[in-house]
Amino acid sequence: MTSPDQADYVTTVDGVLQITIATAANGTSMDFNAIVAGTAALRSLGADIGAVLLTGTGANFCAGGNVRGFAAADDRAAHIYGLATDLHHFVRALDATTVPVVVGVQGWAAGAGMSLVCAADIALGGPGTKLRPAYPGIGLSPDGGMSWTLPRIVGLGRAREILLTDAILDAEEAVRLGILSKLVTADEDVRTEALNLARTLAAGPRTTYSSIKTLLAQSLSSPLSDQLDRERDAIAAAANGATGREGVDAFVQKRAPNYS
Q: Which InterPro entries match (predicted)?
């Protein structure tokens, strides 16, 4: 599934497309070779993929953009415009993905790294996980969709406070706000637990997950009456689908369903 250019950043394990978005070698700042490779992989997802996992290989999930690279650019506006364009292609591809997107957040998720945490369906962290917008600290404004996702997670008022004050959120606060889904016991277990969760989801009812994600996305701009109609149509269609038939039959027969 991956080309030689993607191989360092994109792998497939047990139905999970794993994308490494930051590496220790890159100082745990966002690696845009990874972002471009990840976008290509997301756009060509095959039926063998049942979940996506975003991870970093260094001490941090992602410490944000390469600020030294910003400073060194001859035309800073053009440089950052290009990076934001690539990142936003990636975020759009994530948003269009019908399978669950899991993030394992070890250490810091700052700047665009925090944006990707907010873009995930489920985000796991550890006791030492910290999140920070980081944009005011370098005099820049948000990218990666944070100005859209964060208010929808924490509410507009709290999003204003977090962004304007460049708040540092510890792990427990991030869980309380709903940015992180839950914490694992030890920081060193974050990547493993995130991969285990992604594997479990990949083995689950994929058409059900796709329907859930579609309904949730539609609910953001849908009146309740319209949403009720969509839910009725979706559950009726699922009842005659292979996944729905297997799930119901397995329940009645008191056995574990096989969604493979």
A: ClpP/crotonase-like_dom_sf, Enoyl-CoA_hydra/iso, Enoyl-CoA_hydra_C
